[in-house]
Amino acid sequence: MPPAFGGGARRLEGESAATSARLRAAAEVAALRAAGVTPLLALVSVGDDPASAIYLRKKGQACAEVGIESRRVALPAGTPTAEVVARVRALGADPAVHGILVQLPLAPPADPQAVLEAVPPAKDVDGFHPENAGRLAAGLPGFVPCTPRGILELLRHHEVPLAGRHAVVLGRSNVVGRPLANLLSSKGVDMTVTVGHSASGERLRELAREADLLVAAIGRAEMVDASWVRPGAVVVDVGIHRVPDPTRRSGHRLTGDVEAASVGAVAGALTPVPGGVGPMTVAMVVANTVLAARRQTGAS
Asked: Residues in domain Tetrahydrofolate dehydrogenase/cyclohydrolase NAD(P)-binding (predicted)?
């Protein structure tokens, strides 16, 4: 069992769950290659965002580990939207490319929504295309965004009870909050879901305290402390922030949307930052790419 936080909350480590997901993907890739299919993921970026470079390297490495080939398409800052869209559409028309991932943010003036909509839904391994978002909401097969899918897989890996429980998702972004709410309330998962956000006002903390499962995806460092958490609740921290810390040699530390020290004293379980949701997001990029290759080629 993973070690507990200082206050006793069980650590829901992401690496063990991610390793299991990668092993399953590697077996599927081996079967695809035996059938003559080499899965290929195109990684598209615009500009030189340092964080994006790290994420892209991790995704490329994760693909290589399981036998998926990756193709980097790096465009300079200042590339107009039409040119980015044209490159994405060319990748979409290439039968050798099974998945396309557009790394956000895109440097201006590229319009991220126009670029994301240029990705064919069948190759949209990030699950951001409006068609895939709609299919998730309707309970139809499609691609689930990697972070929400990774959160669900992480909870299942650690055998966290979900059906019939109450989840409160803090944040309503199209990347995490909204798709996660749809996923947790879908048939087969069967949670009752409340979405809280910046316009929820003073009641937001009260809503959070009603949760059996509290997911913090609000983008503010350590905003969720113990006063937000019902004793014994499971807490998933989606945020990651670099904050000043004069006690560290680097002068900073990584933290999430949750104040782990206080929340760990009251929660039943908590994902660490780093090492919780992050590894699962990368693992689900791999899983979705394998799924895309299988669907496009008809290989089992």
From this structure: 145-296
